[in-house]
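Translate sequence into structure tokens.
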Amino acid sequence: MSSRNGGLRAALGCAMLVWTAAAAASPGPCEPMTHEGERFVACTVDLRRARVKLFWRGADGLPYGSLGRLASAQGPRLSFAMNAGMYNADLAPVGLYVEDGREMKVANTANGPGNFHLKPNGVFYVSGDKVGVVETGRYLRSRVKADYATQSGPMLVIGGRIHPKISTNGPSLKIRNGVGVKPDGHTAVFAISEGPVTFGAFARLFRDALNCPNALFLDGSVSSLYAPALNRSDLSRPLGPLVGAVPR
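Result follows.
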């Protein structure tokens, strides 16, 4: 009996080693990193290998409202998710929102207070296996046929330069999240700070550490991340539009 148990333990041990090696060989898209002494998590997705999708409402027609509810609906296919742009009290997007090729909210080009209206603001979009972050006016002029798009603001990095109204290290300290695009036009990088950071520090993260010549601020204070490979599922106030990655 003990010999059989020993053999079973050995077999289970080998199975665990195989599972651990496979898990190590296939990590999730999110990795912790530091820049200028601040801690962040960056989630990198190559759209030639995975799909980036936006999510607002579930099958019941109501906003998902949380990363946990989205994760429950999508199951293990969802490799990461985070909040994806500013929203109103009813959890509806403040600006342009496109999901599955359908424009559900039109672009917001009005002037006003707050970060969204700190122009130039911008649009993050997905079109097939291509991805982009561009100023709102440029997006509208280009007439991109987007599968997914969300408008937010301000732009953090524009053509390799920090937004002209973002100071090097201003007084505002918030937990922040945003998205940038690599020069190949196929790779999106989503990042969230682990603690409060300035706009300047967050913009430099994308430009200097993540090699994103264009990047967009998604939100602050409510910034949240779902990353199962990191055993992380943040709780926050109710959220509007969400973004996540699933297999192709």
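Note: Residues 1-26 have pLDDT under 50 and may be disordered.
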